[in-house]
Amino acid sequence: MLRLEPRQQASSTMRWLTPILAVAITMVMGGLLFAAMGKNPFEAIRIIFLDPFFHETFGPYSRSQLMVKAGPLILIATGLSIGFRAGVWNIGAEGQFVMGAIAGGAVGLALHPADGFWVLPLMTVVGALGGMAWAMIPAFLRIKFNTNEILVSLMLVYVAYNFLAAMVTGPLKNPDGFGFPESRSFTSVDSTHLPMIYEPLGMHAGVLVALGIVIAAYVMMERHLLGFQIRLTGESPRAAKFAGVNPAFIVAVCLGISGALAGMAGLFEVTGPAGKLTTNFPVGYGFTAIIVAFLGRLNPIGIVLAGLLMALTYIGGELAQLSLGIPAAAISVFQGMMLFFLLAVDVFVNYRLVWKKEVK
Amino acid sequence: MDFSTLNPVALIASLIIAATPILLAAIGELVVEKSGVLNLGVEGMMIIGAIAGFAVSVETANPWLGMLAAMLAGASLALIFGFLTQFLLSNQVATGLALTLFGLGLAALLGQSYTGMKPPSTPRLDIPVISDLPIVGEMLFRHDFMVYFSLLVVLGVWYFLNRTRGGLVLRAVGENHNAAHSLGYNVVLIRMAAIAFGGACAGLGGAYLSLIRVPQWTEGMTAGAGWIALAIVVFASWKPWRVILGAYLFGGVTILQLNLQALGIGISAAYLSMTPYLITIIVMVIMSADRRRASLNAPASLGRSFHASH
Amino acid sequence: MKFTTTLAAAAALALGLGGSAIAQTKAGFVYVGPVGDLGWSYEHDQGRQAVEAAFGDAVETTYVESVPEGADAERVMTQMALGGADIIFTTSFGYMDPTLNVAAKFPNVKFEHATGYKRADNVSTYSARFYEGRHVIGLIAGRMTETNTVGYIASFPIPEVVRGINAAYLAAKSVNPDVQFKVVWVYTWFDPGKEADAANALIEQGADVIMQHTDSPAAMTIAEEKGIMAFGQASDMMQFGPTARLSSIIDNWGPYYIDRVQAVMDGTWTSTDTWDGIAPGMVEIGAFSDRIPADVQAEAQAAADAIAAGTLHPFTGPINKQDGSVWLAEGETADDGTLAGMNFYVEGVEGELPQ
After folding, report:
1. What is the DSSP letter of C259?
2. Which residues in chain A are contacts of B102 at CB distance < 8 A?
3. Does residue A236 carry a pLDDT above 70?
4. Is the dihedral of CA A268, A273, A274, A277 positive or negative?
5. Model pTM?
6. Exposed end of chain A (fewer CB within 10 Å): N or C?
7. How far A22 CA lies from chain B's nearest CA (Å)?
8. Interchain contact A151–B (C-beta under 8 A)
9. Does the model's ipTM exceed the 0.95 cut?
10. Is the per-residue pLDDT at B116 higher than 70?
11. Does B98 sit within 8 Å of A340, measured CB to CB?
């Protein structure tokens, strides 16, 4: 019968082959799904994956939106992947995203109408600190009380959503806004407007920062002692302890970094694409980033590709809604399937399928 | 502030209804975790149960068939998770999250044509004398069948885990899957059964939401109930009776904060809405801080992949 | 599901008419919730269908539902404009900035923003005087309540919602001096779970009439179950509360939408601000349930007629603000400006307005 046998060594071919395999299988299964819904599967797949790049009317605009969508995903996922590699599961990145935006945004609003190139960098730093502080709560509770950080960080997401509502209906509300629950617009004032570096590709400053962070993360994880300690903690906590790694320190560092990056992403979002603090600027990047992290195999380079792929399914999905009437829910199913298939074929990295006769 | 309009009897009745879906999902997840598996996909299984239960109820005009369908749907989705984690040895945290995402999307897709429909109503309990008792009657004895059933499930789970051989084996698998394996027990099969049970319970909890509590179908209607259920299992230190306490506590805080708002309490509605989640965190901290009690109850193999080496 | 048939039909027609050179006008609709909410977005879609019925092959409509307010909305609107839309209806307040941003990039496309207040050369705003409807149902509520407590499920503390609460309260109070209003803020336009919970909480507080400014029929369903009274919001909601439903406020966007599309086709479209109520038919009062006694029905109908005729304004003094200060003197009516920015409760409404 078919058995899974551990490989002597993790297969490096499989490592880069599996994501491609997973995407291919998803395309097939997704196509079947669309066919079951009465749509032309080939057309649907083409609209989702190819049109955003190549369509003559929609292409230029869609291409520019790809990085806008992928930027925050990549930034947050990079931070999360560092923690995941250490076995520190930050599921509350969405909450840190929101808190970072509120913290940095509040500074920007307090300084209004200040002018100067230093305003936005200050907001960014405060945003990162805000997200980090929010992530330190589950970190502290895990270190001190051994509380599961998955559930604490997750509960804090809901707290953050409500805190956002409280802030935009109260202290941070735009005094010239007729009582509507939103802050002043950040994009209407130059000093708080996230600059667009290269419009055709949608590269705003936040995207550049994200790419910079990816490089820094790669260097840290592969070449720096801290990165080694993080990876060791994840692969063998016992060995890490013997090597003198302080587990509490690793937990704090991992949650701190992922919280800071998520907070920064939040700040970029409200000073750029969203433009202001409202009750619904968070669209779930914190959760999608988790998928991006896994899809990218917890590796900074992989995360860039995975982020772009996810962004593609979002943008392509919207085009499919407009042209074919495929409901938004179908795209979520698609994304969920992609992750399932990736996790499924992942096993072939460390195990191999063999046909073994039962030995009696 | 005029407290005279507050109706404690109706409040407690509401609390019980609010708590029941979480109770069902939590007790199912407790069994799963006792076998050593951490299934974070509770939210996905609940919402699949919600739509399956709703759709079948509407199509057959029979709420009971709907509930059955919900259990089957939840179990099926859970088995996907089971297959990936037990046979293909995938990471349990990631797979659970994928299950949630997939479940939410699939439910939304299936539910497209069911938005805005009214499901057949479920009968309420009506025992001749007892249901008409002045205070206690309305509070405890006029609920729908599922409320009482959920309590029976908890009783059943307690009995199974603590008084039967099957339960002992399941707990053994959760504590030390290698030892259980060498004793000849089929770890994978036992875990698959537990996972399926957890899925069925979560599905039933979801159906309760769409058929009784709201009752309507909407995309994303579980609104985080699955995550709360996971927290309640920790809160309960993996003990069945404590799950009831946790679910009712959470349900109570949710209902209470709305009532406080209606009373005109000065605290902003947004802050009041945070309270259930903050209280859950505080309680979880208290539970896990007590290392002796906590560690005695968390199954030792929780979250670790089992691979039989021959 | 409806969307595919619409588009397929339109496409088939377009292909069929391939020979004739009718330049089709394209109208796009952006909804904040699902069309199946049977509330706000449902009624806008009814308006869209009215446009299709009125113009037939001359107009092609497309829509996207459940579009979050913010960057995603901007993208959807841009894609609609790129796809050749001549006029785009954006049906939620939160779409304001995205609408203006996209309008700036596509000066030849007309935009209609619902419930907003910012306009541009190619952006109009429109809204309905829902508060007129609230006055009528407030009268009914004041007369029908037996516990003298009316429960109000409110979404966000924005002027439109506050206007509704104030108008309903004033009307109820005018026929029933002992009436009390209890308000619960759910901070969402559409969340049946939360709305159901809020309805229950209000009922537990003694309310026997429920009003809502949220988009789903959940509250009506709970009212039906618990045997109390409620009003349909944005759509009739009769099927959810056969005995509970007393009346309803129905948003009727069809006539306005048809007007605007016609203007685009005729080339007479200009940027306007429309705020219509009962008189032009944008706000409809749903049929009165038999549960309402004949004299109350007559009273409510008379009020609706008076509002339509312009002889009755729901905000006529003397009215004080909640803090006791004078707002309107005897006989004075509120001007549109104050109403548009209303951020205070009138005297007698309990509780604090979240600020």
Report:
1. H
2. 332-333, 336-337, 339-340
3. yes
4. positive
5. 0.83
6. C
7. 14
8. yes
9. no
10. no
11. yes
